[in-house]
Specification:
The chain is an alpha/beta fold. Strand 7 and strand 8 form a beta hairpin. Helix 2 packs parallel to helix 3 and helix 6 packs across helix 8.
Length: 237
Amino acid sequence: MKKCILIVEDEKNIVDILRFNLQREGYETVEAFDGEQGLQLALEQDPSLILLDVMLPKMDGFAVCQAIRDQGYTTPIIMLTAREEETDKVLGLELGADDYITKPFSMRELLARVKANIRRTVMEPLPSNEKGHLVCGPLEIDEAARVVYKNGVMLELTAREYDLLFFLAKEAGTVFSREDLMTKVWNYDYIGDVRTVDVAVRRLRGKIEDHPAQPTILLTRRGAGYLVAKTEMNIKN
């Protein structure tokens, strides 16, 4: 079954280029030319991925992204922006976008990002010696179901957040640089901007930590990277 990409972009020439290249790669596409229509199609069509422009008529991309996440949808979202300001990039990620790419962009890079983000939602769980439940402090990670419980309550994690937590938890005590995580978790080569990792960590801490500003599970080693604290852990069948 073909994967469907929702393109939300008000510039017709960009939509035409994206549609042509995505369909050539075997994807189906649906297009919206303003934010309100984009939100409606995102909720009705449940696409495999959304390419979402920031500057849109009627409803900007930030508001669309937030509304999609508020509805509980974990569809991968790549934000397209002509802006270079770091605050805009970070805001999109904080609102729940999985990635962003700045215009003008190379089609090769965009297609690689699309492929990598879709792969996160359909790939097999990251390898481990024995599949089961990974216990890490108050967290229990069900590898088969790809869900995480905290003190018995299921957490609402995106596919990216789950993969980030699972990867670090199964290697508890090991520090991974942002570049390592981009390669091993985001599944594409490091291309010079690792802000995505920092924001993903911050969002994940907000869901798994009792006090996100003073984390005890997902730690930072300044100048080195991130790790899950090594505590009493085991694999249960």
